[in-house]
Amino acid sequence: MTEVIDQKPKTKSKNKVKRPKNWAVVIHNDDYTPMDFVVWILISIFKRSEEHASRITFAVHEKGQGIAGIFRHEIAETKAHDTILAAKQNNFPLLATVEEVE
């Protein structure tokens, strides 16, 4: 007769999976990019409502920068790149950067 013993592993896994960090896409103010274009960027790339896009644009204008959105790193990088590319295609110096959110 074989005896079955129910044993749990003696070692515990200490490798917990960490959640990916969040990254903010920051739009920076400049003296050349029209506010209407920034609103358009926020609506088309960041999927903001017109009202929300206008509020963010006003914050960029008043405070020098504003957060367009918070995403995982790869998505934030892509949206910042798409913003800069669209600005260049329209001859605007609009700057978008990615900053880690703590």
What do these coordinates show?
This protein is α+β, with helices and mostly antiparallel strands. It is built from three helices and three strands, in the order βααβαβ. It has a three-stranded antiparallel sheet with strand order 2-1-3. Helix 1 packs across helix 2. It is elongated, with a radius of gyration of 22 Å.
Briefly characterize the structure.
This protein is of the alpha+beta class and 102 residues long.
- The number of helical runs is 3
Helix content: 40-55%
Number of strands: 3
**What class, by secondary structure content?**
alpha+beta
Read across the widest sheet, the strand sequence of neighbours is 2-1-3
Uncertain stretches of 5 or more adjacent residues: none
Regarding quaternary structure, what we see is single chain
> SSE order in H/E notation?
EHHEHE
Strand content: 15-25%
Q: What does the overall shape look like?
A: elongated
Give the rounded overall mean pLDDT: 92
* Main beta sheet strand tally, sense and closure: 3 strands, antiparallel
Q: Cα distance, first to last residue? A: 59 Å
Gyration radius from CA atoms, angstroms: 22 Å
